[in-house]
UniProtKB/TrEMBL annotation:
Domain named EF-1-gamma C-terminal: residues: 166-326
Highest taxon of source: Eukaryota
Protein name: Elongation factor 1-gamma-like
InterPro entries in alphabetical order: EF-1-gamma_plant (IPR044628), EF1B_G_C (IPR001662), EF1B_G_C_sf (IPR036433), Glutathione_S-Trfase_N (IPR004045), Thioredoxin-like_sf (IPR036249)
Keywords: Elongation factor, Protein biosynthesis
Region (Disordered): 134-169
Keyword Protein biosynthesis in record: yes
């Protein structure tokens, strides 16, 4: 039986377990379709942990809850030295685990929880007001006793009419026969015969005068040694590309069955070049080599097809993951 971690994600308590597992070469699977408040209240879950707390690790020998306990368990599964090799090593490791829990987690949550809507923010206040000198007290009493002069308020300046919002340069391009939303809808709704329906539909819609296709390759693939870190890197890129959602469609592939993982992508942009505002505002763009697709080259067109449909193997290698921006 594989190790299965039950919890909602993303969660720092889940990540600490996954990081330890990755470094120790231990495979930990996330429980599929976990729903907080539902999955952890099921009879099956409550048999493993009667209080319904997550994360919980299901092992061949029984269940473990509490993220630090799970992390220790995973770190000790192999004799890799991750958990130290002497009593002083163990002591130092336990020391920093406790420090993180008691000195960092317990305090940082009071800062982060209100920002995420999970708590109330209380502004800092002085517990004891400063003691005034007799002179300061007398001056304050005198100022309080004197009637305040009403100051004439200057007339409020007339409100300026709101300036019209500047249009995105892409909105000023000549109309295109390709309707991007139609393609995104076709891509999302095609469940069978993908080549015959979605891929054919894409090329029927594609307008080289109004849109351009681009391949991208991550420049630093040798750094992609940890799978979930690589996936998070790609996910962050797609989040920051939200500024272009109205004007772009993209596929990002994480390739390889073992590290280092390769990251390659395909992007469809409005216009004949990559939009300048994307290059200016999304810093990830400079982390990739960009090459415009020559749609007259059948080999390049076939590569486009394979990337759109997440073909596996891709260029002779397994797909670790495929993400779509639409």
């Amino acid at each position: 039986m594989a190790l299965v971690l039950h919890s909602w994600t993303p969660s720092k308590n889940v990540y600490k377990v996954l990081i330890a597992a990755e470094y120790n070469g231990v495979k930990v699977d996330l429980a599929p379709d976990f729903t907080m408040g539902v999955s952890n209240k099921s009879p099956e879950f409550l048999k493993m942990n009667p209080i319904g707390k997550v994360p919980l690790l299901q092992t061949p020998d029984g269940a473990i809850f509490e993220s630090n306990a799970i992390t220790r368990y995973v770190a000790r599964l192999k004799d890799s030295g991750l958990y130290g090799s002497s009593p002083i090593d163990y002591g130092h490791i336990e020391q920093w685990i406790d420090f993180s829990s008691l000195e960092i987690d317990s305090h940082i949550s009071t800062i982060l929880a209100p920002r995420y809507g999970y708590g109330v923010y209380y502004a800092p206040t002085d517990a004891v007001p400063p003691v005034k000198t007799p002179e300061e007290a007398a001056a304050a009493a005198k100022a309080k006793a004197e009637p305040k002069k009403q100051e004439e308020k200057p007339a409020a300046p007339a409100e300026e009419a709101p300036k019209p919002k500047a249009k995105n340069p892409l909105d000023l391009l000549p109309p295109s026969s390709m309707i991007l939303d139609d393609w995104k809808r076709l891509y999302s709704n095609t469940k069978t015969n993908f080549r015959e329906v979605a891929i054919k539909g894409f090329w029927d819609m594609y307008d080289p005068e109004g849109y351009s296709l681009w391949f991208c390759d991550y420049k630093y693939n040798d750094e992609n040694t940890v799978s979930f870190v690589t996936l998070n890197k790609v996910g962050g890129f797609l989040q920051r590309m939200d500024i272009a959602r109205k004007y772009a469609f993209g596929k990002m592939l994480v390739i390889g069955s073992e590290a280092p993982y390769k990251v390659k992508g395909l992007w469809l942009f409005r216009g004949k070049e990559i939009p300048q505002f994307v290059l200016d505002e999304c810093y990830d763009m400079e982390l990739y080599e960009w090459k415009k697709v020559d749609v007259s080259d059948e080999a390049q067109k076939e590569r486009v097809n394979q990337m759109i449909e997440d073909q596996e193997p891709f260029e002779g290698e397994a797909l670790l993951d495929a993400k779509c921006f639409k």
